[in-house]
Design a protein that fits this description.
The chain is mainly α. It has seven helices and no strands. Helix 5 packs across helix 7 (141-179).
Length: 180
């Protein structure tokens, strides 16, 4: 049991990055990691020695997150107003632009399928190789590569579409003004 706990502690930084990739928020990621560890410790007898502890814990975190998403659909969206108070900084325009871009990216990632979100988290954020991600998810490496390629493509198209909509809307307003 002590070896299990030590290995679990070693996984915490990676688990936190994975949780952040799912939640898009450090506080919620920390809560998810804590909940994952509690669940893992209370069900430690279910983990089989010789299997990958990281895969098992990622799966626990993933299931907890999906349960939260389903519960939030029933409850509705909760917005933390305090998170938007400290937008000013040394150069407010850059900070606001960066935060809005990060928010848009997080929003577009959350619109991807759960399988694609997980791969983005494991490979692009956690830094796992394709092979490690394939082993973690028990998938063929070709499946990982194709899903990740589709995820990146979808994210790229969604980001460009978001920019295009803003440009069209602002251009339309300018054209309306010039017609008056």
């Amino acid at each position: 049991m002590d070896d299990f706990r030590l290995r679990m502690i070693e996984l915490l930084p990676r688990l936190r990055r994975f949780a952040f990739s799912l939640t898009g928020d450090l506080d919620r990621a920390d809560d998810l990691v804590q909940e994952t560890c509690v669940r893992a410790l209370s069900n430690a007898q279910q983990w089989q020695v010789g299997t990958r502890l990281d895969s098992w814990m990622y799966r626990i975190a993933q299931n907890l997150w999906f349960d939260r998403l389903r519960a939030n659909k029933v409850r509705g969206e909760v917005i933390d107003i305090d998170a938007y108070k400290n937008l000013a900084g040394s150069d407010g325009r850059e900070i606001v632009d960066s935060r809005l871009t990060l928010e848009l990216v997080s929003e577009k990632i959350s619109e991807l399928s759960p399988d694609q979100q997980i791969l983005i988290g494991l490979i692009c954020i956690d830094g796992l190789s394709y092979k490690e991600a394939a082993e973690t998810l028990a998938l063929p490496i070709g499946t990982v590569m194709s899903r990740l390629a589709r995820a990146r493509s979808s994210l790229s198209h969604a980001m460009r579409a978001g920019d295009g909509l803003e440009t069209k809307a602002s251009t339309g307003k300018r054209n309306e003004r010039s017609l008056r």
